[in-house]
Amino acid sequence: MGSKFRYFGIGLVLCSIAASAQTVPDFRSVDSLSFRYYISGDWNELTKLGDSALNNEIDYKFLRQRLGFAYFSEGDYIKSVEHFEKALAFDGFDTFTLTYLFYSYLNSGQSENAGFIAGKMPSDLRKRLSVKSFQPVESIDFEYNFKYSASVRRSNPQYYHFGVNSHLLPGLELYQMFSHYNQTFTFPSLGGKEYVRDRQDEYYSLLKFVISPHLMVKSSYHCLNPDYDTISSPMHLGYLELSTNFGRFNFGINTSFLKGDKYSVNQSGIKAGVAFSGNLNMYFNGALSLISKQNTSRLIYNQTAGFRVSKKVWLEGNITFGDLTDYHDHDAMYVYDLIDPTIFRTGATLIFFSGKHITLWANYSYELKEYFENNLYHYNQFCYLGGLRWKL
């Protein structure tokens, strides 16, 4: 009896091993099944099969293309990028891969990488997709910001800018912007009140160069011409950033130098973020900056989070801690060199994508300000901003 049980146990083990061996996928079955799932549009089964195949070191161009298309169809553009990049490594001239990698980059918000891939396309494919390698005016944008100052000694500030983006070469973009800011200060005087106007005209340019789909260099120049009480004092800002991304994660380091007639400011920082597409559709970005000015240093932290409300609408929230005097963000596009320091800021932005050509956004922000003549006293400021981008 004992020997029978022993043989029976050995038989169960052998059957188990045989069954396990049958579940290990082979190239022929993977290729046949993945093609069947691809043709039928069964994306869930295709992605499960693909994951199993890759785990068993079955990896080839058509499998990556089918997986990339499956995730693209489900709206998970970050995953589709991952697979189409692998497919491109197998065959750098495949037009199907180039096409859907281009659109995956666009839909995941990586327009610079899409431009880089466009440079790898044959001319007939670019023509068929209406993709232009050189566009002197790729898009134009306009932004207006009205700020309500809860102080009788400060007028309501106003700001606007007009910008133009150009595609110079595949993976090389130039953005240029002209902006204007104005506000009036009220001070008590012997004759009653004294009014002082604070205005500022600015020119800004940003050059973005994609070295590879995972490495980008940004360099910007910002010229500010503040005019306070008819006294003009031009300032010049240079900015440099190196950023990289790996799937859902992105990292960046940056440095800048702001030079004026009376003082100079160094700012250096690090950025990190994570993005989710597909069913989640959200992102989180954080930035820590160190500002050095006249032998003093201070830290500023900014946190941003966004999520998709609907197919065409995104909502983004942000919060910034620290004294923002002479601080800059958004690749040195916005510089907080105003007379009254901002010591806290938070807000939310609603972004609406109206078709392929028009993007609209509206922002509400709250700022806590200090009086520059007496920093023991504060006042509130509420900002209402609207913007439009038209892609030609």
Describe what is shown at a glance:
With 392 residues, this protein is of the alpha+beta class. The protein is built from 8 helices and 17 strands.
Plain-language structure description:
This protein folds into 2 domains: 2-128, Alpha Horseshoe (Serine Threonine Protein Phosphatase 5, Tetratricopeptide repeat); 135-391, monomeric porin ompg (Porin, Beta Barrel), CATH 2.40.160.40. Mean pLDDT is 91; it is low at 7-22. It is 26% helix and 52% strand. The protein has 8 helices and 17 strands. The radius of gyration is 28 Å and the shape is elongated. By secondary structure, it is an alpha+beta fold. The protein starts with a helix and ends with a strand. Helix 2 runs parallel beside helix 4 and helix 4 (61-73) runs parallel beside helix 6 (95-107). The protein has helices at residues 2-23, 27-40, 43-55, 61-73, 77-90, 95-107, 111-118, 123-128; strands at residues 135-149, 158-169, 172-189, 192-212, 215-228, 231-232, 235-246, 249-259, 264-276, 282-293, 296-308, 313-321, 327-329, 334-336, 342-354, 358-371, 374-391. The longest helix is centred in the first third of the chain and has 22 residues, at 2-23. Strand 8 (249-259) and strand 9 form a beta hairpin. The strands form 2 sheets. Strands 1-2-3-4-5-7-8-9-10-11-12-15-16-17 form a 14-stranded antiparallel β-barrel. It has a two-stranded antiparallel sheet with strand order 13-14.
